[in-house]
């Protein structure tokens, strides 16, 4: 069965090495425009994208996002933002008041951002461009907000590098379908599938020299696959001041 869209989807691999060649403005517009075609809660369209091409600004964003150097090489950096500010203005013009204080208000805008961003990612890949999401942008969210002059009710969820790939990226295996597709009810009995995937990933060699540190397990490098890597990763905890920053931006998360 020939299906070019499925082919494109299955070729996805994050790109972290880019040529410095520019991406035409019309292409950036077409990419974000494809994002706009995604489904959006009640047609609210509660997201905004800041396209950053200025090299100094990209350098600043790279240093805020864990010093990920390739952000300065990729010619375009899209900052995907939750945005309830536009609707605040709509309500002002229509003489009503937007309710924004609940967690669901933030979830709605965050979901809208993700759907649009992934549409845009595929559009970029359809042009032969490479992309990589940058979640590390939330590490220094306050500084990102300041740098991009994001108003109240706008929050940067993640970035996305876009540019011409320097080389073809390797397509990372995913979990067996059975581990994520449950029929009729949730099936917790996944150990065999997890171990199968663990071995698939270990066999790729991708973790060689890339083991996450974990106290007391410095010498346990054998049998290091997706399970150990992931268990160490999620044992590190997350960004602890995010709620405070969201509240400062007007998302009260009640
Ligand atoms: C929300 C989100 C944030 C991410 N943040 C980063 C990041 O800061 N740096 C990075 O190199 N990759 C980042 N990634 C890319 C993931 O590491 C990558 O998608 C994952 O390892 C699967 O690899 P693949 O995209 O090549 O299939 C992010 C992905 C997502 C979805």
Structure description:
The chain has 254 residues and is α+β, with helices and mostly antiparallel strands. The protein is built from eleven helices and four strands. The protein has helices at 4-10, 25-36, 55-64, 70-73, 85-93, 103-126, 141-147, 177-180, 191-204, 226-234, 242-248, and strands spanning 47-52, 76-83, 130-134, 154-163. The chain has a four-stranded antiparallel beta sheet, sandwiched between helices. The radius of gyration is 20 Å and the shape is globular. The structure holds flavin mononucleotide (FMN). Residues 12-14, 16, 68, 132-136, 158, 172 line the site of flavin mononucleotide.
List SSEs in N-to-C order.
Answer: HHEHHEHHEHEHHHH
Poorly predicted regions:
none
How big a fraction of the residues is strand? 5-15%
Q: Total number of β-strand segments?
A: 4
Q: Biggest sheet, in brief?
A: 4 strands, antiparallel
Please list the strands of the largest sheet in the order they lie side by side.
Answer: 1-2-4-3
Query: Could you tell me the radius of gyration in angstroms?
Result: 20 Å
Shape: globular
- Backbone structural class: alpha+beta
The residue fraction in helices comes out at 40-55%
Which cofactor or ligand species appear?
flavin mononucleotide
> Residue-averaged pLDDT, rounded?
96
List the total number of helices. Answer: 11
Question: What order do the helices and strands come in, and which of them pair?
Answer:
Elements: H1 4-10, H2 25-36, E1 47-52, H3 55-64, H4 70-73, E2 76-83, H5 85-93, H6 103-126, E3 130-134, H7 141-147, E4 154-163, H8 177-180, H9 191-204, H10 226-234, H11 242-248
Antiparallel strand pairs: 1-2, 2-4, 3-4
Bound molecules: flavin mononucleotide.
Flavin mononucleotide binds next to strand 3.
């Amino acid at each position: 069965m020939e299906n070019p869209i499925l082919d494109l989807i299955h070729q996805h691999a994050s790109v972290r090495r880019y040529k410095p060649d520019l991406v035409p403005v019309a292409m950036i517009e077409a990419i974000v425009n494809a994002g706009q075609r995604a489904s959006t809660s009640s047609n609210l369209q509660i997201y905004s994208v800041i396209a950053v091409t200025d090299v100094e600004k990209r350098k600043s964003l790279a240093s805020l996002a864990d010093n990920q150097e390739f952000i300065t090489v990729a010619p375009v950096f899209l900052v995907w933002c939750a945005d309830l500010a536009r609707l605040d203005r709509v309500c002002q013009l229509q003489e009503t008041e937007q309710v924004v204080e609940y967690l669901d208000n933030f979830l709605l805008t965050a979901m809208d951002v993700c759907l649009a961003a992934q549409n845009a990612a595929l559009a970029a890949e359809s042009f032969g461009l490479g992309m990589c999401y940058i979640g590390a942008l939330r590490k220094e969210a306050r500084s990102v907000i300041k740098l991009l002059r994001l108003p109240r009710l706008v929050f940067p969820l993640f970035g996305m590098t876009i540019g011409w790939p320097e080389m073809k990226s390797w397509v990372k295996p995913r979990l067996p379908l059975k581990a994520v597709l449950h029929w009729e009810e949730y099936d917790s009995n996944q150990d065999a599938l997890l171990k199968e995937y663990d071995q698939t990933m270990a066999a790729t060699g991708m973790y060689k020299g890339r083991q996450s540190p974990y106290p007391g397990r410095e010498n346990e490098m054998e049998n290091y696959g997706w399970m150990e890597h992931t268990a160490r990763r999620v044992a590190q905890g997350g960004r602890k001041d995010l709620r405070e920053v969201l509240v400062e931006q007007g998302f009260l998360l009640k």
